[in-house]
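Our preliminary data section would be incomplete without showing what the modeling component actually yields. Below, a chain of 183 amino acids is followed by its predicted structure, encoded as tokens that our downstream tools consume directly.
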Amino acid sequence: MVKNMHTDLPVKEIMTTKVCKANADENVQEVAKKMVSFGVGSAVIMRDDKPIGIVTEKDLIAKIVAKNRTPASVKVSEVMSSPLITIKPTTSVREAANLMMKKGIRRLPIVNSSGNLIGIITDNDILEISLDLGEFASLVREHSVGYPEETSGICDKCGKHADVLREVDGLHICEDCAGEGEK
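Predicted structure:
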């Protein structure tokens, strides 16, 4: 496979260096206010100047709002995602995208060799550098998380396009071909 020039860039070239951070002992309301002021959907949670977790909008909805908890009475350390998955500044955009897909995450904090937070990269940052659509589609197919097993595309058995493909024995096959196997 020919590699796309953009995906071989190190993430340090496109990372955001002004990261929304919060201390582990802050309450959820304080952290949510920081996220709003930064205009972002996540905050990296710190303890002793080291990143230890991340809290996202999804965490706030699932762990606070949906459970009718009072944000001011809950420490962010109780709802953060941990352990934190991080990458180095020299990691390629391709590797970062693969890791995001594989782990089902949308944000990757970037740490230096001392473990200090120096930036963050998001799925939107990767899209903004104009990933080749074919390459992006192959990454999604290769590492999809939480997507239904049915998809559209070309049947691996008959070669025809189908609106609905099912994965059977590692092949994506149309309903007609899937029906042949059931007879």
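Residues 148-182 form one domain. The first strand starts at residue 21 and ends at 23. Preliminary results of this kind motivate Aim 1 of the renewal.
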